[in-house]
Structures are given as structure tokens and as C-alpha cells.
Design goal:
With about 1000 residues, the protein is of the alpha+beta class. A hairpin with a 4-residue loop joins strand 7 and strand 8 (about 250). The N and C termini lie far apart (about 75 Å). This is leucine--tRNA ligase. It comes from Trema orientale.
Length: about 1000
Amino acid sequence: MNLQNMQARTHIQWLAPPPIRFGSVLLPPAQGVHSPKLSNTISSIRNNTLILRLCNRNSNLRTRGLIRSSVAEQEQSQNQQLGVRRAYPFDEIEPKWQQFWEDNSTFRMPDEIDTSKPKFYVLDMFPYPSGAGLHVGHPLGYTATDILARFKRMKGYNVLHPMGWDAFGLPAEQYAIETGTHPKITTRKNISRFRTQLKSLGFSYDWSREISTIEPEYYKWTQWIFLQLLKRGLAYQAEVPVNWCPALGTVLANEEVVDGVSERGGHPVIRKPMLQWMLRITEYADRLLEDLDDLDWPESVKDMQRNWIGRSEGGEMEFSVLNSEGKEREINIKIYTTRPDTIFGATYLVMAPEHPLLQSLMTAEKSKSVQEYIDLASRKSDLERTELQKEKTGVFSGSYARNPVNGEAIPIWVADYVLGSYGTGAIMAVPAHDTRDYEFASKYDIPIRWVVTPDGEKIGDSGKAFPGEGVVINSSSTFGLDINGLSSKEAASKVIEWAEKTGTGKKQVNYKLRDWLFARQRYWGEPIPVIFLDDTSESIPLSETELPLMLPELDDFTPTGTGEPPLSKAESWVKTKDPLSGKPARRETSTMPQWAGSCWYYLRFMDPKNSKELVAKSKEKYWSPVDVYVGGAEHAVLHLLYSRATPLDLFKHNVSNLSKGFYSPGYWAYPYKVLYDIGVVSTKEPFKCVINQGIILGEVQYMACKDSDGNLISAESAETMGEHNQERIPEENVVKSGDSFVLKDNPNIRLIARAHKMSKSRGNVVNPDDVVSEYGADSLRLYEMFMGPLRDSKTWNTSGIEGVHRFLGRTWRLIIGSPLPDGTFQDGTVVTDEEPTQEQLRSLHKCIAKVTEEIEGTRFNTGISAMMEFINVAYKWDKHPRLVIETFVLLLSPYAPHMAEELWFRLGHTQSLAYEPFPKADPSFLKESTIVLPVQINGKTRGTIHVEEKCSEEDAFQLASQDEKLSKYLNGKSIKKRIFVPGKILNVILDRENAKVGVRG
């Protein structure tokens, strides 16, 4: 499309606004902003603007003029009453250029490209298209990746910048159950809304590569990867304890269970064993750890991943169970310990409530209390059970076990702070040297025996455990083991050596990382490509040629209530035959979890239309690895861990849970290492650089405290009082007093000021659609980058966006000129074709250098500051040369692409600037242009002057003669000679008589 054909535009007249405060600075009246309270009027204006846009496409100029005149008069009348105006016509510019980019496929990366050019693959974490749409926190990372993508295109890179949808999952299914609407309908509707919102923000995604996990063409390859795992024994079935929600009729991941109820709906959740598909992720634990060192990731993220993998070296020991007569039964309990040196201090064993041996250990008199405790523990999540601050609970099983190193009979307890999924599901409890065991033993009056002391110190019952290493004491027996006096490390090695010789244990490496639950008893997910023979229940994988196994259409996808998945209702789909033997068979009716399809999406973006293979080797080799991967820090630990072990994506959990040191979601992921092993991918790691953007919190909320009688009290009084009520106070009734906020009408009442994460329940969600309507997409983009460093959390403040909006308005007027009397702007510009001055070039190239450096360092806020400084300087110039202005527009374009495209067009260009070369700073203009030159009179320094670096002797002397301090030595005096060293010194030698006069003067 020729840009000259896009000149038809409309103009709306606005009235001048009063000054607006931006932070602590009172900005002068410029082109104004919308009042955020004018939503009804804005809606009307938006409708009228639509009429104008339609009018622009009308070839009948008379009709266009009449409509525009009518609408302009109506809007002028409205705006005269409301006193608002726009800083620049973003409402015309932005839709125009979004349409241009779409019509011309501006950002499409063709399949066939020049692979000799450098590549840049920049990726956003896969979004889940919820019905709520975007809030202003979402575009933070998206804007950052878009700036990088636009910058790299202008630097000559092939840029891959795609977008797609993680579209299967429980939320859509639950909404479908509640409304009777098929999840496919609601999901596609949500996707459409998300897509529209993203396009309205001007993101330069290659929409030709858009993918969605719910499309059979996509999940065919999700199923294919599962078959590869199955072939290699990395996918298997096992009976494992799961979070079962009877009301939802499905297994839930740990992060979907909060305080014993489902996160969605608040339904009771219990733990019960079920036959489930699992992934053997633990096979890759060591490789995941080893490869972390070479990654350009935040160290905090790498440390969290190391902690989550949780590799530890220790010993596996066997404790034999005793009968009522104290004799050994044919049952041994295996425990894993990282501290074999403390085994003489073990005074009891603890078994997890779900341990498979527990039913055979509880005595008749204890069976009721143990069973009740098991039922109680089944309602708790793993996070609740392992929380360090919670009170420890447990019950005695009635049985005892023999400590293998000293023959002592110790009681076997059941306690939920031990998990069946970690280690062996049983521990030896050493209360003197483990904090949890100490609390438990103290509560239930179990003996505490000290067996390790700090070097050179004696230790008694100090009221707390000593978990550190030291010198071993009280640790010898007639069983041939004596470790007294050894260091903890020496003692641990000797215990393991003794255990291996006696057959009571062995050295063992263990991981917190466990194999991952794969199946979900849901409808809205990828079908698992496995059938089971009716007569033998043998599992048989489908042939790869039979993929995709399509999800059947169901009218009733509600839970069965029996534990059978909803797919069991599709009887004609479930009943099938084994293609080889012809025997009757049935399909697997569990589906893959939501994260299945989002575990490898970034690979598919490289080759989204390939029907023959997951990704062509040539394309994968060129585009891999992802150069920059941006997403929220709340996704960092497991998302990145399993997008390495597997390309896994979006999972939902609370950041506060991570701070407690334990998080155990029950979803699965595709081992990326497996894909590497079988030659699908060419790199060991999928992501070269990971950036975690901060969270945008809602606007600060002010709360006043009240006592039990409803009287207002100051916040410090409420803190000492304990329980109290709170009431939200409108911002207009609040003033700042020192570092605090107080009531305007009563400064003695200090308020609680706090910003919260955006959520519907708090009513602090800001819709980006509203912001775009009032300020424009470029303003939103700039503000989100200007709020602070990308990686920091920030608080939304509407007055802040007004400030960057005014900056864009000033930029617009600098180049286009002041508005015409009717409030519209001319079509051209006010730039001149004359050569820029050295000072103008110096300002420009300093800006180029700073903006380039800050984009490359993802310090976008300081890059914007540099552009603001440039505009401030440029307003002081009498004329604005084209060379300088065009270069600045290119600098602005990654941040504010709509305005930049329009300015570029009005400057006379007929092609988009998306692929124009990004400006390069000339080093010669980055040096300081002036130097401080010492001036001597007869060899004695009398002062200094500021001169150009290449200043001549005559110019330097003239400046010295004009200097207030130096002139008294020079003016009217006879000069014998001048000694000038360029850039170093000026020495003026006076004749003898003048020198005396000069000294006296």
C-alpha cells in the first residue's frame, strides 16, 4: 500500500486544559489529556471517530465533508463543555498504522530467508487467554520484547517475534460446565479478544505464525512427543497419591489446591491413590544441574532451580520392624538421610500418611486413630504439610523398629510433615539435630539424644536443635561401629561404609525433584494416544501415522462423579480395535494437563505449518536457541526448569509460596534433553537469556483504621491494638505528611498506604483498552517502560501516564508545529533542509549513543529519559534540520511506533521505517567540545577560561581579555609576547613596567 494514499484523515477540535502535575513537577499547559472520568463521553467520541474512519474510505468528498463537519461540530460542543483535548491525534494515527502493518504483513518473517544474516529470536511466555482479557500488567513484558524486536530489525537481523495461545485447561472447562457452552467456543472467543487487544498496542508480532494448543494440527505433535517419551520408558503408569476433587471430578496439581480446597470453586480436595501416567523427569536431574552454569539467566533464578532440583548425597538405611514380642518381622522400612553421622541420635521413625507399608504396621488398638489421621492428612496440600511455621502433628502407629547401628527399638510415628513423594516416604528422626524433629519430639515427649557437638564445645539441652556439623559424640556400639571423635563428614562416610558391609544400607543420591504426574481426569485437554486391550488391559501406543488423535465433540462434559474422566461418556470414541491384532480395545480417557501443549511451543513457532515433522532441522538449527525469553518472575522456578527438562510454560502459583521454600505442582513437561538426545533440537538449552519482568501493582490504596466503636484511629495505634476495622479513603481526601499519608481533614490520623497485585476482588484492575482510548497505545507503551527498571515491581499511577503522554505531544508539535486555530494540525512538518549545527549534532549523537546502549541493556526507562532530554534541548533551537529530526524519529520508533511511522511519512518517506537502519552514534560528537584552559600572566596562573578543544591562540586570548577576573591584568597593557600550547595553557608575558602595574592592580 502506498503511504501517500493514506493521507485522508480527520481532525477533532479540543479546548486547552489546565496545567497537570507529573510527580513533583508542574507541567505547563500543552496539548492536554483526557480526564479518566470521562468514559461515557469517550465512548461517544470513539463511536464518532469510527464514523470518520469509514468516511475516510468514502470516495465522495462532499459526503465526507458533510459528515466530518457534523461530527466535528458535535464533538466541539461536547469538548467545550468538558474542557479536554488530546496532545496529538493518536486516535487517528494508531488504527491507521495498525491496519497498514496488517495489510502489508510488515513483520512477517518468510519461511525462506537469508540465513547469512544474524538472527534474533525474542519470545514472550505463552499466555493463557482468560475471559478477563488483558490488564495493564500484561503489556509490560510484551512491550519490552517488542522494543527489542523492532530494534534488532533496524539493526539488520532476521527477527522471529511470534505469539500464540496456551488454550487447553481447567478454567475453560469449568466455565463451560457452568454455562453449558462448549469450551472451544469460549476459548476461541477469549483468544479473539486477546489478539485484538495485543494488536491495539502495536506489537510487531508475526501473526502468520500464530499457534493455539487446541488445534489438532498443533496437538498432533504434542502427542508425537509423548510417544517418543513412551518408547524410551520415560512415560509410564503408576499408582500414586493425587489431589482428587470430587466436585470437579478431576485430579488437581498442587498449585491448584489452597488450604485443602480447589483454587477454582473452593471445593474440598482429598489425597487418594490412582493409576496415573507419569513422566520420568528424574532421569535428567543431574544434566539439568550441570547445564545451569552456562546459562545467561539471573543468578536468583538459577539458585531457585538448583534448590528445587534439590540434589543431595546421603545414605539409604533399613530399619527392621519388630513384633509385639520385640522380634524382627519380615518387613524393613527404608529411610533416606543426608546425615548418616547422626544415626545414633535417632529416637523414632516417621512415616508419611500415604506410605504403602503403613496399613501393615498399625496395631489394632491404634488403627482407628491412625486411619483418622490419614484421612485428615489427605485433605492437605504438600505445601501446607511442609510449611515450617505450622504446628507439627502426628500419631503413634503402635509398632517399633530396630535401629541397625545399636539394636535399639524405637517407636514408629505417622506425621504429615513427611511426604510420600520425597525420598522413601519415611525418615529417621533425630530431634537433637533437626528443627522439625525437635519440635515434634518436644510436643510428644520423645527422647532427645545429642550426638554431634560444635568443635571444641559441649552441648546440652539448649531448648533448640543443633542442625550443624561438628564432632560426633555418644556414637559407638557393640555392632562394630564407633564414630566418636570423628568430624561429621568422616563419620557419615564411615557409617555408609559399615552399612554396605553389613547389608543394612548403601550410599544414595537423592533429589527433591520427583517424577511428574501427567494425566488429568478432564475433558478439555489433549487426548493421550494409547489404547488398552479389553482382555489383558495391555497398553498399546498408537502409530504415529494415526496422529492426531482428535478430541471428540461432547455435549456433556461434566464430571462423572465416579472418578472416570468425562471422555468415558464418548462411548463410540472410547471403543476401538487394536489395528494389528483386531482385538477389542478402549482408548485412554484421561487427557494431558494444560501445560502439555505449552511445553514446546517455541519450537513450533520456528516452523508452524510443517505437517511432516515437529520442526524442520534447518529451521531449528538457524533459530535455536531463543535469544531472549521474557516473562514474570512468578513463573521462573518451575517454568524454566521444565522448559529445560522440557519446554514447559504457563503455570499458576503464588509468589509467596516460593518464598516459603517449597512448591510442588503436579503437572508434567517434555524433556528438552530428550528432544536433544533424539536429534529433534540442536542445542542443549532452549533459552540463551531469560529476563523476569517485575509486577505492575494496582494504584496505591489508602485505608483508615477504626476501633470497635467505629472511631477513626491512627495506623500506629491500630498496630498496638491488634484487631481493628479498616475503611478505604478516596485519594482526594489524602495528603502526604513527611514519609506518611494522613487524612486531609484530620492530619492526626495516619493512613495505611499500600499497593496490591491487580485482581478483580480488590477492584484495582486497570484495563489497557481504557488507557489506549484516553492516551493512546504509544503512551501506554512508553509509560510502562518509563515506570522504572524492567525487572523491578512498580505501582501504577495514572498521573504518570499523563506525563509521558505530554512528552509525546511535545515531540509531535516540535516536528508538526503548533495546532491550527481550529485545534487541528497541518499535514506537513516544520523541519528545515539546512545543515545542522555542531551543537545540534552533538545533542543528537549523545542521544543516539544513550538510547542504543540502554536498549541493548534492557534499561528502557533511562533510554526514554535520554529522548526527553533531547526534546527539551531541541525546543531551544530556532530551526530544526531534517537530518536531526529524521534520526530522532528512528530512535523513537521502537518505543512509540505509531507516532514514529506517522512522522516518518509526513517527513516525506513512502515506505515504513520498520526496516530503516537504526542510527549509529558518531564518536567524534561524544567527546566534550570545550576544555578548561589555564591562563598565566608572566608565568603565574591567574585564572582559567573555557574554550573549544581546537581553539586558536587568538581566540583564546580574546576570551581571556573578556574574562572578568583576567581582564584587569590584560586590558590596556603592553604585551611583550604570548606563549600558547593548544589545549594546555596560555601564558601572556607583559613588559616589565606593565607587569608591575598589573601586579599592583
